[in-house]
Structure formats: C-alpha cells, structure tokens
Amino acid sequence: MRSVIKRPTEEETNLSGFQLFKKLTEDEFIRLNYDKTCSLFKKGTIVYREGNRLTGFYCVTKGIVKLFKTGVDGKEQILRFAKRGEIIAYRSLLSQELACTTAKVIEEAVLCHVPYQTLLYLIQSNWQFSHHMLQIVCRELREANDYITDIAQKTVRERLAEVLLLLKENFDLDNQNNLQISLTREELANMVGTATESVIRLLSEFKQDKLIELQGRKIKFLNIPALRRVANI
Amino acid sequence: MRSVIKRPTEEETNLSGFQLFKKLTEDEFIRLNYDKTCSLFKKGTIVYREGNRLTGFYCVTKGIVKLFKTGVDGKEQILRFAKRGEIIAYRSLLSQELACTTAKVIEEAVLCHVPYQTLLYLIQSNWQFSHHMLQIVCRELREANDYITDIAQKTVRERLAEVLLLLKENFDLDNQNNLQISLTREELANMVGTATESVIRLLSEFKQDKLIELQGRKIKFLNIPALRRVANI
DNA sequence: CGAACTGTTGAGAGGCTTCAAGCCTAGTGG
DNA sequence: CCACTAGGCTTGAAGCCTCTCAACAGTTCG
Question: What is the pTM of this model?
Fold first, then answer.
C-alpha cells in the first residue's frame, strides 16, 4: 500500500520550522537530520495501521494526514488531521504500545520518519525537548477531553457547526472564505460521530440559513458568529 | 470550600509507592518530600475548579477524586477518577494553561501538593522522570481517544456496560463481586454521557437480565462475560 | 421532623438512524 | 472520444432510541 513515487524537494524535508526542535543544539539537530528519512506519499496511502508496531514517529512537512480509529462495524472515527509542522505516531511510540490509530494521507504529503532511538536520544540529552514534547501531548489531551464533553452532551447539529469552526481554525480560509481542506460528507460524519445522511441534511440547513455556501466539497463561510451560536460555544 | 481537618498519617503521605518517582535519585526524592505539602480533604471538597491557575500538581495517596468538565447548561462530564498512586492537575500545569477540569473529592482523600518549581526541577534534572511522565500522559491520551470513539459510535446501553467494566478494572471488586466505588446514578450518567433516568432504566434492565445485582449504590457483578457482550467489546 | 437530595417510573415528543432509491461526477477502458 | 461503472451525494419515509417533563417514593442529614 505504501507508495513512494519521487524524492521530495530539499525544502520539503526541512525540519527547522518545527517548534518541537527549536531548542535542540546544533549537534542534536544534525543528528536528527542524519537519522530522518523523508518520503513523498500519494493521496490515499496508509502510513500505518491500527495494531502496527511503530519504529519511529513522523514529522509532516507537507500535505494532510487523517488519523482515525476503527470502531464498531469498522466505522471510522476521525480523531484529528495533521498538517505541516505537526507530528504523528508519537503517542503510541512513547507509551510503547501498538498503534491505536490508522494514518491515511488525504492530500499528497511529505513525511519524515524519525527512528525511536533518535527520539530516546533527544529525550535523554535535552530536557527542553522532553518538556516541549510534554506540552504537545498535554495540549492534545485537553483537546481530547474537550471533545469528549462536546460529543457526550451536544446535539449533532451543534457538533457539526463546531467541527466546521474547528476546521476553520486548523486549516484557515482562502481569500473567498472557502475552507482550505476538502473532505467527503462521510469524513465530516466520521468526525462528528453521526450518519452521512445527517451531515448532508444539516449542511443544507446551514446553507438555507445562510451560514455557509456549498459547491461540491468546497465550503464557504458566510456567517461565522451565527455558526458559533449554533455550535453553542 | 477547601476543608483540611486533621493531619494525615505518616503512611498516608508516603510517595515511594508511586511509579512516577521510581527512578529518582535519593537527593531528588528528598527534595520532592521536602517540597510537598500533604493534606486531608473531606468528601465533597473541591480541590480546584475549571479556570483556576494551578500552582502544582497533586499526588493522590488516599481516597478518590472525581475529575470532570462542565459542559452545556452546567452538566458535568466525568473524565476519570483518580485513586491512590495517581496524579492529578499535571496536564494543565505542564501545558501552562488554566485548569480545564474541576477536581472533587468523593471519598475522603489525602493529596500531596507538589509545586510547579519542583516539577520543573525534576524534568530538568532527570530524563527518566520526564520519560515516565510522557508515558503517563500518552496512556491517558489513548484512553481519551478510545472513549471518543465509543461515545461517538456506541449506544447508551453499550456505553453503560462498558463504563461498569471500566470501573471494575480501576476499582476492583470485593470478595462478593461488589464494585469498590460508590457512585450516584447521576454520576454514572455523567460518565456515560446520558440522562440519569436512562441509567436507571438500563441498570434495572441489566438486573433483570441477571448481569448485575443492585442494592442502593452497591453494584454486584453477576455475569461479566455477558456484560462484555452487551458492551460490544 | 422537615428539607434537600436521590432514585424510580410513566408518557410523550423528537432527534437521528436506517433503509431504499435515484442522481451526479469522475475516472477507466474499449 | 464516449459509454460505463463505482463511489459519492441527495432525498424521502419509517421507526426507534433517548431525552425531557412530571410526579412521587425513598433516604440522608442537620
């Protein structure tokens, strides 16, 4: 399933933009770059599957990766999308468990694989790296906790509005207020935790209410404050 | 609201049983003990509230603390219960955010407060401590992700069965198969993410189906494999 | 002993899901 | 180049799971 077609460009393998590596010494950064392996992944590629043993974590330097768990009846629950500057697979690696999510490329991506040994080396040699890592995980844990509360207490309508706003935060809008990520209705449903049909119906209600405009998978935001009110934030 | 009635016993303030501190040097452990402040908290006490600025984390050496978020209409969403050997408040501390949960004592507890400075000192001086901390957070993150998937995809019935089994894992059963934690119906509902009435109805269905036996808040497990099947695990 | 909280049961309403059928779009192969 | 197929999208109808509201019993505690 893994398909590596061509070498990524120099710029696409550069890790100096990553917050996580900001506090590394020159030597540490050199070692990191020496140990990493960057590859280009086509859309649709599975980077790793739930249950896999992982050999390292990945830095996303380009593209978008979808992270999801497989639940009841094989229905996928999307946990997050990782884009440039973010890292994936580190959770299972650190807790030394098998992967508990599947990572699938939804927009042609460049990923840099950093071996477990290198991660351990950085943790041992540089406390600021560990500290930064702790902050990343802790922030993700808060987001997970927030999401548990929402999903447990809010209606599907509220959750869909919230998910749209969340996507807006993470992927920005273009100059015409279009969401810069293209998802299927099913993927939206798998984020919200509902049926595809429900998403379709609610989206067209949002459209009727002039909150958004739809054109295929393109979603244009027309009235963000109102959307926020629907989301009950 | 904070009520400290009497000094905890020597044994109740001992942190040597904590996995997290296993790899500390003697000096580090001495400093930890010097810096900590242990107090006894009565049932019902709020240790800290959502939005508070935290000055350190707490080690639970006795009792049970309920951690929850306040969601829509002030309805609480229980995220977990912390018991002897576990730590709380470390997430917000590490990511340097305001507390995103409220901690309430539901069984008379002894908590040892460890100042933020001491935490930072340990992170800086001992990479094994950081590593252990990372593992703890990562494990909690996996549990949160698992729970998101369940709550998004399973029925209330399945979730209630699962919550009961989860409680069994965390708090064990006495020699008569009674769950060793006493929760109100509302608290069960706030874990599952449903209405109190639904929990009541489902519990009595489980009772009819001879899966459990009820006596006030006491829950006796009669048929765990069947309960597991109901939970759809 | 009364107040406040907790637990229980019933009835009705409604949000969502499921099933089913048809449309549309995009990619493929003849 | 175009028909064809597969997967995504849309809409309708039916029904159920779950919530809300309401009334009341039981329990705990000052």
Answer: 0.94
